Every structure is written in structure tokens, then in C-alpha cells.
Automatic annotation (TrEMBL):
Gene3D superfamilies: Tetratricopeptide repeat domain. Residues 1-23 form the signal peptide. Keywords: Signal, TPR repeat. TPR repeats lie at residues 200-233. The keyword Signal applies. This is Tetratricopeptide TPR_2 repeat protein. It comes from Ferrimonas balearica (strain DSM 9799 / CCM 4581 / KCTC 23876 / PAT).
Length: 447
């Protein structure tokens, strides 16, 4: 191949990649969306997302749009976007989702960049799609629809963990001290999340709906799982003791361990506060250069860096009671843990990519001499970009409060938003507060 044609061919390949996340990383694409949310304009944020709903990353954009629509109070639209995301998820089995390991289907994209592989989502994101969808049904008064999503969220956590354990048979394809340093950093960032599959916030939300639907046994199972993730959370401890004693299951033993159960008085209703705050941090990247057979190579790997101080708890006044939420899910830690769990598979694809690029370098050197070798090295360097795609409108942290208050109606204000809580004896009221950027959404329902 003439040298000029080789250069032109590579330029055309680069031009063909221009519409992907290869040269405009996903966090940069999302910057206008987050800016609109910071300004409290959910409609402008949705308009920025519309073009991506029909592209190769449609699943990711549908998740973002579902979240933004809910923040804007349009729960029916949010419901439809999440349905689109679920339809995309249904195309992949769990092993492909937790490991991105269907190499044969991805080989064309994976030999250039992970950014050219259509976004398959992540297990913790799929779990949260179901949980957020359950709330959409709840706000529209459809308890039966909410229950369907509650069961799907529980099933998704179990199946994703099992699929990951089954898939984790690959060995690392790349040994490097800098890689090991990044793995250690991800372990540090993910310290509060033992895995990315079991989400205590989702479990608590599910338990509230189970109990309101007359299924305390299922609620107890989910609270027990949530406490395994957050063993020192006093609210989860109280909920476990209360449900266990209500069902006469290990009541004495758990009471000795965590304290006596707090049971409702005849004229009290149950309140569950779900508080979502902050933005999930975007992935960053680290470049690791090296030479192979005298030729320059580099790999770019995704990572996370510290996202600043933790969000403050939410304090509410309901009648004469002052309520303060507690953290039940650090989603930034879960995202870092998810990336750490995927590293064996990321490194496997890097090994395939390095081999392909090394062979391409040798071919270019034979066909085009020094110009060919240099051109190919430049091409490889330009296309070696870490995959930074993830669901960025998720909250950074989820907090909660659960307990019993006197029945009645109570005005509740959060910033400029307000609602009226209705508590009824023997029933559950769910209050959802989402605060992201300049948007605060507050919603409640008596179940």
C-alpha cells in the first residue's frame, strides 16, 4: 500500500470514530446535561439527551433520561424511558453484563477501543433501574406495578452476583506495577462497598413496599441483607429487630444484640424517608506507557478518584419530631467496586487490543517504512482512550430514615419544595427527596 494511501486510510478510520465516545469522552458529552440540572432545568437536560436515545449507547441515554424526567416530576415519561432501558438490557445475558466478556461479538470494536463497543450497562445500574421504576409506579398509585419492579430488583441482585462469580475465571492479561497501583486505588475508593451487586438502599426501599403490601417476611429478608452491607447502621438494626419480633423470628437474640424493638402505638403510622443526593462522579483515566519489541505502546485504563467530602444528612421536621437520615448506600463506592470487579475482563480485552495493535505496527513498518510505523503509532495513541461511560445522573449517596409517628397530616419543606405527609395508623407513608444540582424533587404517598 502506498504510504500516502495508508495515511489517508487511517484518517478516514479516525473520522468514522468521531461520533462515538472515542474522541469526546462521555463525561464531556454529559456536561451540558449536568449544567442544565445545576440550573434546575430538567427539560433542557432532557433535550440534550434526545440524540443519544437512538445511537449505540441508547441504553445509557435511556437511563439518564429516565432519571432526569423523574427529577422533573414527569413520572410517566420516566417510566417510558426506563422501559426502553429494560428492553435493551433484555438483549444481554447476565454474564455479558457483569463481565463484558462476549469477546467474539465485540472483537471489531475491542481491537481499537472499548468506546466503540455498544454500552451494555452495569449490574448495579440495572438493579437501580428497577428500583427507580418501582418508585415511578408508586407515585402514580400503582402498587401492583411497583411490586413487580421490587421483585425484579431483588432478582437482579441475586442473579448478577451469581453471574459474576461464574464469569470470574479469566486471568489478568496485563501485568504492570502501574496497573496494580490503580487496582489498589480502586479498592480504597470502593472501601464501603463489599461488592457492587447488593444495594442496601434498594433493599430498604423494597422492604418498605413489601411491608406496605402485607409481606413482612419478604421485608425481613431484604432488611437482613441490607444490614450485612451496612452492619453498623442503627436504623437497619432497629428495623431488623422490629420485624423479627413482629414475626417471632430470633426476637430474643436480636433484641439482646441490638436493643428492644420499637413497636408502633395504636394511633401511629409508619414513615419511610428515601433521600438521594449529589451526582455520581465520572470515571477518569490513567495512561500506562511501555515499549514492545522496540515499538511505543500505551494503554489507557478507566479509574475513579476521590469525589470530595460526603454529602450531609437530611434533617426534616415533621410535627414536633426532628428526623435525620442515615447513609444506606454510597453509590460512588459501588461504582468504583463495579469497575474493580470488571478489571480482569478489561485487562483481557487490553491484551487482545495490544496484540492487534502490535501486529498492525509491524505491518505498517513493513509496508510503509518509518512513515508507516510512525503513522500507526500515532493512530494507536489517539485511539487508546479509556471507556468512561457510566450512568452519571445517579445520586452519589442514598440515605434513609424509618420509624413511627402520630397519625395526621404534616407539611414538609425541603428548600423551595414542599409537600403534605399523611400518616395513618397501621399504614406506611413513603417520602422521596431527590436533590441534585439546582433541582430538588419531593414526593410522598400513603400506601
Amino acid at each position: 500500500m502506498p504510504k500516502r494511501l495508508m495515511v489517508m486510510a487511517l484518517v478516514m478510520v479516525l473520522a468514522g470514530c468521531a461520533g462515538s465516545s472515542l474522541f469526546q469522552p462521555y463525561p464531556a458529552r454529559m456536561a451540558p446535561v449536568k449544567q442544565a440540572l445545576e440550573q434546575g432545568n430538567s427539560q433542557a437536560a432532557l433535550k440534550q439527551l434526545e440524540p443519544g436515545l437512538s445511537g449505540s449507547d441508547a441504553l445509557l441515554y435511556a437511563q439518564e433520561a429516565g432519571r432526569v424526567a423523574a427529577l422533573g416530576g414527569d413520572y410517566a415519561a420516566s417510566q417510558n424511558y426506563y422501559r426502553e432501558a429494560m428492553a435493551e438490557y433484555s438483549r444481554y445475558d447476565w454474564k455479558a453484563l457483569v463481565s463484558l466478556s462476549d469477546i467474539t461479538a465485540q472483537v471489531g470494536g475491542s481491537t481499537v477501543s472499548d468506546n466503540l463497543i455498544p454500552y451494555h450497562g452495569q449490574a448495579y445500574e440495572r438493579v437501580l433501574v428497577h428500583q427507580q421504576q418501582s418508585l415511578n409506579y408508586l407515585w402514580q398509585g400503582d402498587l401492583e406495578g411497583a411490586m413487580v419492579e421490587v421483585r425484579r430488583a431483588d432478582q437482579a441482585q441475586t442473579e448478577s452476583l451469581r453471574a459474576y462469580q461464574d464469569a470470574l475465571k479469566s486471568t489478568r492479561a496485563l501485568e504492570n506495577a502501574a496497573v496494580d497501583a490503580e487496582l489498589n486505588e480502586l479498592d480504597r475508593q470502593a472501601g464501603k462497598a463489599p461488592n457492587s451487586f447488593i444495594n442496601a438502599y434498594v433493599l430498604l426501599s423494597n422492604a418498605a413496599i413489601y411491608e406496605a403490601n402485607g409481606q413482612p417476611n419478604d421485608a425481613l429478608i431484604d432488611i437482613r441483607k441490607a444490614l450485612q452491607v451496612y452492619p453498623n447502621n442503627r436504623m437497619l438494626q432497629r428495623e431488623l429487630v422490629r420485624l423479627s419480633c413482629q414475626l417471632s423470628i430470633d426476637c430474643d437474640a436480636l433484641s439482646r444484640r441490638y436493643g428492644d424493638p420499637v413497636m408502633p402505638k395504636p394511633d401511629q403510622g409508619r414513615l419511610v424517608v428515601l433521600y438521594e443526593t449529589g451526582f455520581l462522579p465520572a470515571r477518569s483515566s490513567v495512561f500506562i506507557p511501555f515499549t514492545w519489541d522496540g515499538l511505543y505502546q500505551q494503554v489507557s485504563l478507566p479509574t475513579y478518584r476521590a469525589g470530595g467530602p460526603e454529602p450531609a444528612p437530611l434533617t426534616l421536621t415533621v410535627g414536633t419530631e426532628h428526623l435525620t437520615t442515615e447513609a444506606v448506600a454510597d453509590l460512588d463506592a459501588m461504582a468504583a467496586r463495579a469497575l474493580r470487579e470488571q478489571y480482569p475482563f478489561i485487562l483481557l480485552r487490553q491484551g487482545i487490543r495490544l496484540t492487534a495493535k502490535h501486529n498492525a505496527n509491524r505491518w505498517a513498518e513493513r509496508k510503509g517504512g518509518d512513515l508507516g510505523a510512525i503513522t500507526m503509532e500515532v493512530f494507536n495513541a489517539l485511539t487508546e482512550q479509556a471507556d468512561k461511560r457510566s450512568w452519571l445522573t445517579l445520586p452519589r449517596q442514598a440515605q434513609a430514615w424509618a420509624g413511627f409517628l402520630d397519625a395526621g397530616e404534616y407539611p414538609v419543606n425541603v428548600g423551595s419544595e414542599r409537600t403534605t405527609l399523611t400518616l395513618s395508623p397501621g399504614r406506611t407513608t413513603v417520602l422521596w427527596v431527590a436533590r441534585q444540582g439546582g433541582l430538588t424533587r419531593i414526593q410522598s404517598i400513603l400506601i
